[in-house]
Design goal:
Helix 13 (375-386) crosses helix 14 (402-410). By secondary structure, the chain is α/β, with parallel strands linked by helices. 32% of the residues lie in helices and 22% in strands. The chain starts with a helix and ends with a helix. An eleven-stranded mixed β-sheet has the order 8-7-6-9-5-10-11-12-13-14-15, with helices on both faces.
Amino acid sequence: MKLYDLIKGIAQTDLPDIEITAITSDNRTEFPKGAMFVCIKGNTFDGHSVAQQMLDKGASVVVVEQDLGLENQIIVPDTRGAYPRLCANWFGNPEKELKLIGVTGTNGKTTITTVLKKVLTDFGCKAGLIGTCQNEIGEEIIPTARTTPEPYDLFELFRKMADAECEYVIMEVSSQGLEQKRVEGCQFKVGVFTNLTQDHLDVHGTMENYYQAKKMLFDIADNAIINIDDEAGKRYLSEIPCPAKTFSAERVADFYAEDIILSSDGVKYVFADNKEKHNVTFSMPGLFNVSNSLAVIACCETLGFDVEQAIKFINSMNGVRGRAEVVPTGRDFTVICDYAHTPDAIVNVLKAIKGSAKGKVKCLFGCGGNRDAKKRPLMAQAAADNADFLIVTSDNPRNEDPEDIISDVLKGLEGKNTPYVKICDRREAIHWAVKNAEKDDVIVLAGKGHEDYQILAGGVKIHFDEREVVAEALAELD
């Protein structure tokens, strides 16, 4: 691509209109001679410090924020914000060929995006999905490493989706992705806010910073759909610039639920929008899934789809992998796999299950290493207050000692009467839970959900699918 085409609308230069062979912001990767290197300042590394080295390695141009005295530099006010726009130009601005729907919030993003993609597909629309579990182009599944991809990967994915004739892209938009401007240059048809509870304070530092990061989605959205059962949602209504509609599982809103019936295998309620009412049967348990399904219906209405037909599609759906997912056992007890990894999510899933459980609710959980340590005792308190028995174990310990993580967790159980066992090895813990299950027990495996791996010291990732571990444990009972 010619240099002037690449920087169009982003920067100006007196350099010749040379051919650019590649674009990157990663100095660790190999790139062909003639590439553009974008210098981005991060928390621990500043790309400006290697600008000359990148030119020596064969880059034709470096994009910088200040004058480094280099012959082949292009200066922009903000390289982090410029990089995604450059990537968009590199891939021919595929984001303009797609209708983008963004979902942000602490919990519920995966359920909402997964269900919405299924509903839009049922309407006959080809859709892409970008999220925590996986990326999808129509029916093609593409593994993913992060919720919101880095700019080059994101716009490359958009290009593939546009070329595959996707009309819509439903996307989980993380607070970190927003703060790092990975979606700079995108304009969303609809932005959805689910809720805000403590998470990612290792990245954002404070809840206020976390709140402000999420709010950035609505600076680049045509319409907002806001959960007003959440205090942050109420606050957003008075602060965001785009038109907003509200949804609620607890009060009257633009989209709301009446006559809610909760059970262990799903929810039933009457959907209302001050114009019409329809019966909803959604096969995922818990009041929070009333909220999630309301968000999907609200999106459909905002996009111009028939609400009654959208609800029929939702009523015919099965659940979402790793979200209150029932793992088959063939026994007189139940095992449920859920991604709950925040205090609020733990409360939600355990309340949803305990309300209809015939026996004891036993929660197996841990906390991730190298992540927000402040929430560890809060996770324990949430579990102790809403379960009958706890199995405290590891999650993704990463570079922390699992025993140290568990010590932080156990501080939250001080003064609590809920009985528990501590089993550091997660596989062993699951085996123990299955072996000691009693009639009508519900064992909730919290924290891993859709993940089929565990991350150990040094970033080593091992295969670990809890469904398989449960099957192993069941086999030992025979």
